[in-house]
Amino acid sequence: MKVLVVEDDPNLGSLWERVLLEAGHEVLQTASETGAARLLETRPFDLVVLDMCINGRDARGISLLATYRNPTCKVVIVSGSSNFSRKALFAMSPAVSAALRKPVDIEDLLEVCHLVSGTDRRLPIQTVDGGGIEFRT
Asked: 25 partner at 20 to 30 Å CA-CA among 3, 18, 113, 134?
């Protein structure tokens, strides 16, 4: 699976990239909205792991660009803000398949990516309570 990680915290971005690489995925990571747009315009991706707020700015435009450039691409939103309701996160784009709240457990991130991308052979989880993970139903 080809994954784009968009996270402005260098420690988180590197961690998520490393974990996804170790799981056997092709991963590119960027810390800016401009970098994400450039990559989405030039390469196909199966999944975008998107921090909702990049360098203090709302990054919802990236989810729309991901859908436009890669119609089958899925988006996992990661947000540390409670300003966005589940309804608002999923309304950004039909490609938004899951939302995680920071702090994110790395095992949860990996499992969500596999579930959303269809690379997990188990039955999909529709909702996970208490872990800060929300799926489109």
From this structure: 134
The string of pLDDT tens digits covering residues 11-53 is 999 999 999 999 999 999 999 989 999 999 999 999 999 998 8
What's the whole-model pTM score?
A: 0.82
| Of the candidates 1, 38, 35, the residue with the CA atom closest to the CA atom of residue 112 | 1
Instruction: Provide the domain limits for residue 41.
Output: 2-135
User: Contact 114/120 with Cβ under 8 angstroms?
Assistant: yes
For residue 115, the Cα-to-chain-centroid distance in whole angstroms is 12
User: Strands 53-54 and 47-51: what pairing?
Assistant: unpaired
Look at the chain and report how many structural domains it folds into. Answer: 1
> Contact 77/52 with Cβ under 8 angstroms?
yes
